[in-house]
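Milestone 3.1: sequence recovery, worked example.
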């Protein structure tokens, strides 16, 4: 494997950047505040995530956006080190928009993000199932496809049925994913 790694500190984990590798990214708002608390705000964050992923060359395979956090799984472009720039752009632009909607300026919205390099197929498939079903996990809907700010409906409509069934068999209740939002 060839890639770039940032040096860790006690405040943040190391980030390993490998081109063409699949990653899971999770981010949470500061103090778990529900800044994206209505459909207008959720739609803004959802669409911004998809637009910026495309701009930075990340191929998203699953995503879920909530009032105080998000998860996504995507394949890194040739320059995987642009993850930090992509996330920074997403957080800056969404914070600016939320602050404008709330009539506040300079308020910090995002706390931190975590990325995991997924190199084991079983781990990847379990996390794919997890992200698609995260709205069910948070009891927002009873069926994942009912939540409009995630990829579950897209996955159900576009993924090969055999692959969908395979993903659905992977349990995710024992995953170590930051999700105590």
């Amino acid at each position: 494997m060839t890639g770039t790694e940032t040096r860790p500190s006690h405040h943040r984990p190391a980030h390993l950047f490998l081109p063409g590798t699949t990653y899971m990214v999770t981010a949470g708002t500061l103090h778990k505040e529900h800044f994206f608390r209505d459909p207008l705000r959720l739609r803004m964050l959802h669409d911004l995530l998809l637009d910026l992923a495309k701009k930075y060359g990340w191929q998203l395979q699953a995503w879920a956006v909530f009032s105080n956090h998000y998860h996504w799984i995507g394949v890194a472009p040739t320059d995987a080190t642009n993850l930090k720039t992509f996330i920074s752009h997403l957080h800056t632009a969404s914070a600016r928009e939320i602050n404008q909607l709330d009539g506040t300026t300079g308020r910090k919205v995002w706390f931190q993000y975590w990325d995991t390099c997924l190199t084991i197929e079983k781990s990847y498939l379990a996390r794919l199932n997890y992200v698609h079903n995260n709205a069910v996990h948070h009891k927002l809907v009873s069926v994942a496809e009912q939540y409009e700010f995630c990829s579950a409906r897209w996955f159900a409509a576009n993924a090969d049925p055999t692959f969908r069934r395979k993903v659905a068999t992977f349990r995710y209740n024992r995953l170590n994913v930051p999700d105590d939002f």
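The radius of gyration is 16 Å. The first strand starts at residue 4 and ends at 5.
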